[in-house]
Specification:
single chain, 139 residues, mainly alpha, Arc Repressor Mutant, subunit A, two-stranded antiparallel sheet
Length: 139
């Protein structure tokens, strides 16, 4: 099945994991996050280590270890997390460059570029602190 928005599994893992961890007092471990999200524990672990490497998370050692947020959740936007995993977000670009296009006006109009811009603004404006979860995560 195809989708207009294609967010990679790694970005989904990073954003959802950060949102969950931001709503805990003592952090979560990879197994707990995998149980909640149903993401592959091995892929999840790789993404969590990228987030640790870039100082978004702290790795907590010991039997009650796991991962905790390193920064204020109000200061971490979804765009920050997305771009950490994917690189800089670029807007929609048609495969045909405007100079070599045979059409009088772009077939897509401005809709796709506007959609991309709106989605980027949403990711930029939405912080981890803004996300609400449906139940308390106990740890």
């Amino acid at each position: 099945m195809s989708s207009f928005i294609n967010i990679s599994e790694a970005s989904n893992i990073a954003i959802h994991s950060m949102a969950l961890i931001a709503h805990t007092k003592n952090g979560l471990n990879a197994g707990e996050i995998a149980d909640i999200t149903r993401f592959s524990k091995s892929h999840l672990s790789k993404v969590l280590h990228i987030l640790v490497k870039h100082n978004y998370l702290t790795s907590l050692r010991g039997p009650n270890g796991g991962f905790a947020i390193s920064k204020d959740p109000k200061c971490i936007s979804l765009l920050d997390i997305y771009q950490l995993i994917e690189g800089v977000l670029i807007g929609f670009e048609c495969a045909i460059t405007c100079g070599s296009c045979y059409f009088e006006a772009c077939i897509y109009g401005k809709h796709l570029s506007e959609f991309s811009g709106n989605f980027e603004k949403y990711l930029k404006d939405m912080t981890l602190a803004d996300i609400k979860i449906s139940a308390e995560i106990k740890k």
